[in-house]
Structures are given as structure tokens and as C-alpha cells.
Amino acid sequence: MSKDKPDALVELARTFLQETVLASRQTSHAFNPDSLGSATTGGCGMGPRPDAPDTWTPRQQELISLMSRTAGTPPKSDDLLLHNVARTCIDWIRRQDAIDRQRNHFLREFRTRHGFDRHSYDVTVEAAFREGIEAINAENRSRLDDHAQAIAALFLDRSPAITRQTR
User: Fold this and answer.
1) Which tens digits make up the pLDDT trace of 56-73?
2) Tally of domains within the chain
3) Residue of 160, 134, 140, 138 lying closest to 149 (CA atoms)
4) CA distance 32 to 79
5) Would you say residue 162 lies in a domain?
6) Is residue 141 one of the residues assigned to a domain?
């Protein structure tokens, strides 16, 4: 097996997971003003429990086909594979929502202490701001990589999906 195959699969899986979050946000009550419990009712993030899409978008279907071809397997309609991919996606949606909430809370607290105008921050405050945001972004990249590797492994039949609960 080519060393590039796992890397290409992980990159496709990252794109797939990002598409999954976008699809979830489009169907989430928090982002749909026509639904009950929309963001106008308060709270942050995607609501009490982010919605997991119950069908794949055309872009997700395309990415599943690309991952199957990249893995060297025929396009799979394997129910177990797709079930495990979906479980990994649900975990990622919840993890991404938690990270987004963490970022929002950081921003709110930081701006409450230091003001909204970043141009008025002194060097120390600006450095603290950048450090805080980068720590959250690093966590996000790390978790995205974990989930992308889990999906790639499913297509390579190496390991089960991530199924741990998100805090």
C-alpha cells in the first residue's frame, strides 16, 4: 500500500467531517429561524444537542465515493461501514459544537475584561488573546485529525469508529 493512500484518505475525511458540520448546522434548530428553539431563544452553539443529519448530502456522497476509491475498494454501500462513519460524524459534530462553545465563551469573557476593540489592546493583552484563540484552534485541529483518521481507518478496515462520549 502506498504511503500516500492513508494521507489522502485522512484529507478527504477532514473535508467530509467539515461538510458534515455544515450540513448539521443547516438543519439545526439553532440555525434555522423557522424552527422552534432557534438561536433567538438564547443559549450558544447548536442548541442542547446538535442535530446529526439523517441523510448524506450530495457532497458527502461524493466524498464517500472518493474515500472508497482512494482506499482501493469498490464504492461501498456497506451498512456497517456507513453506520460507523455516521457514529464518528455524530461524535465530531458534538465535539465541534463543544469547541465552538469554548471559543465563544473565551471571546465573551476576554472581551468583557479587555473590551471589544482589539486595536486598543496593549502588547501583553493582544498576546494573551492570540494565545487563547490558538489553544482552542489547536484543540480543534487535533480533534478533527483524530476523527478524520478514524474515518480513514474505517475505509481501510483497520479499526472501529470513535464512539466515546463528548464532554
Assistant:
1) 999 999 999 999 889 887
2) 1
3) 160
4) 30
5) no
6) yes
> CA-based diameter of the chain, in Å?
57
pTM of the model: 0.78
Which residue is it, cell 464512539? 163
| Strand (E) or helix (H) holding 91 | helix 79-114
Locus of grid cell 493582544: 126
Q: How many CB atoms lie within 10 A of CB 151?
A: 28
| Distance, CA of 129 to CA of 14 (rounded, Å) | 27
* Percentage with pLDDT > 90 across the chain: 58
Residue 95: name the closest of 164, 35, 9, 26 by CA: 164
Nine cell digits for residue 15? 473535508
Domain residues for the domain of 124 are 4-30+51-155
* Contact criterion met (CB below 8 Å) for 66 and 10: no
Q: Which residue matches cell numbers 456497517?
A: 80
Q: Share the mean pLDDT of the chain.
A: 82
Per-residue cell: 119: 486595536
Residue 35 lies in a domain: no
Is residue 167 a part of any domain in this protein?
Answer: no
- pLDDT grade for 165, boundaries at 50, 70 and 90: very low
User: By the 8 A CB rule, do 47 and 119 touch?
Assistant: no
Which residue in the block uniquely carries the three cell numbers 422552534? Answer: 36
Question: How far are the Cα atoms of 44, 58, 94, 119, 140 from residue 116, in angstroms, in the given order?
Answer: 19, 40, 28, 9, 24
